[in-house]
Amino acid sequence: MRDDCPIWGTPAVHFHRDGDSILVESSRAGGKYVVSGTALALLKDADEQQKARLTTRLVRQRAVGDEWPRVASSTLDEVKSRPASSVVDRADGILRFLASRTGILGASVRFRFQTWSQEHDELTANYFGLLAHSECVGENDLDFLLDYLKELGFIRRDGINNPEQACTLTVGGYSRLAELEGVQSPSKRAFVAMWFDRSMDEAWRNGFRVAIEDAGYEPVRIDQIEHVNKIDDEIVAEIRRSRFLVADFTHGDEGARGGVYYEAGFAHGLNIPVIFCCRKAEFEQVHFDTRQYNHIVWETPAELHRKLLARISAVIGDGPNRS
Q: Residues 6 or more apart from 156 whose CB is under 8 A from it?
C-alpha cells in the first residue's frame, strides 16, 4: 500500500511511522505534521470542509515556527467547531503562497490541476499548495478565489480553462502584501493565549495581566469573557479586535498547547504582533523552530511582569491607558 497523506489521501513527500504516530510531509496539507493513531482513525470520518480547516490550522502553526504540528483527537474536535476562514483571508493566503514560491518580481508560479492518482511533480505540488494556503477543497473554490484576485488586480492569470495554468503577482498584489505586513490595529486590547490551569493563576494575576495593564492596554483572556456565541468564534473575533497577542507556551504533563499555537498563527496571518513567552521549566520542550522566536523565558510572576512590560513598551509602544 502506498504511503499517502492521512488527511487528504494524496501522495506524501515524506512518511515515517514512529510508534502509534505518523510523521508526514504533504504538499496538500501545506507541509509537515504528526498525526496520532487515534486521530488517524477519526480522520476517516472527517468531511472535506473539516479537512480544509484542519489544513489551515496546520499552516498557521507552522507560521509561528512549529515545524511538526501535531494532529490529535482533540485537534479534530477543535476543528469541527471552528468557523471557516473569510474569503478575504483565504485570498490573502494565496498571495502569500505565490510570493513564497518565487523571489523574482514578475515571475509566474505554474501549477497543474491534478487528482491524487496522477503524477505528483512541482506543478502538482504548487496546485496542492494553493489549496492548502487558501482553505480550498478543490478546483472550483480555488478557481473562484483566483478570479476574485484577478478582478481586484492583484494577480494575472494565464492558461485559464487549461489543466496547466500560471499566476503572477501584479504591482497591486505586492501592494496588498505590503499592506498586510504593515497593518496595525488601533485597538487598546491585548489577547492572551495561555494554559487555563489553576497553577497559572498567579502568573496571570501578577504577571500577564498587570504587565499589559501597566503598558496601557486591556488584557483579554477568552475564558473570562461573557458571551453567547461558540467559543471558537469568540476567539477569532477577539484576536481580530486586538492590538497584539501574548502567546505563552507553558504546559503541563499532557504536552504542548495546540490552541496557543493556532491562535498565535492566526494572529501572524493577520499581521498582528505576537509576543512569545514560556515558563523556564517547559522551555526546552518547546519545538526547536518555535524557539527561534525571541521568547520571554520566566520563572516567577514578578520576572514575567518586568520582562513583558519592557517587551510591550519596546515592540508595541505605550498604550492609550498608560498614565
A: 150, 167, 168, 170
Same domain, 76 and 94: no
Mark whether 240 and 271 lie in a shared domain. yes
What confidence tier does 283 reach under pLDDT thresholds 50, 70, 90?
A: confident
Q: Where residue 165 sits, what CATH number does that domain have? A: 1.10.10.10
Q: Is residue 174 part of a domain?
A: yes
Report pLDDT digits (tens) over 47-73.
999 999 999 989 988 876 678 888 988
Give 167's strand partners: 109, 157
DSSP letters for 4-29? B-TTT-PBPSEEEEETTEEEEEEGGG
Q: Quick one: CA dihedral 36, 38, 43, 46, positive or negative?
A: negative
C-alpha 215, offset from chain centre? 27
Domain boundary among 181, 209, 242: 181
C-beta of residue 293 within 8 angstroms of C-beta of residue 65:
yes
Rounded CA separation 64/258 (Å): 12
* Last-in-domain residue among 181, 216, 235: 181
Domain around 173: 87-181
- The answer to pTM > 0.85 is no
